[in-house]
Amino acid sequence: MAAEITGRCLCGDIRFAVAGPMRSRNHCHCESCRRATSSPFTTWFTVARGDLRWTGTPRLHESSPGVRRGFCPRCGSPLSYQTDRRPDDVDLYAASLDDPAGFEPQYHSHWDERVTWVALADHLPRE
């Protein structure tokens, strides 16, 4: 059996453990993710909602209809993304992983919304 996937917020008040595999891994360039993280893009991994266990309770913010973004109420670290369009999934930030060494994104999403001042030289598919 594979080891659990674990991570946390900046202050450590909120932690997560995932018992199952990552379903997908991507860099998201959409405007909403950029604004939620104040960064040119963010990197996600998707897990089954039933495989995710929280220690502490993230606060949820409805950033658009049917979309909830989780964050630590103490330090403000963004932690999760949930959408009614994929009720069985939760997206978590790759930067929150305790051990990101083996993490490899699979593709870029919302490439058409990217900021033009960041040049990326990888060869991942751009959707």
UniProtKB/TrEMBL annotation:
Q: Which UniProt keywords apply?
A: Lyase, Metal-binding, Zinc
* Top-level taxon of origin: Bacteria
Among InterPro entries, the record links this protein to:
CENP-V/GFA (IPR006913), Mss4-like_sf (IPR011057)
GO molecular-function terms, A-Z: carbon-sulfur lyase activity; metal ion binding
Annotated CENP-V/GFA domain ranges read: 5-112
Q: Does the keyword Iron-sulfur apply?
A: no
Query: Mind telling me which SUPFAM superfamilies this protein's record contains?
Result: Mss4-like
The record, for PROSITE patterns, names: CENP_V_GFA (PS51891)
- Record family assignment: Belongs to the Gfa family.
Please state what the protein is called: GFA family protein
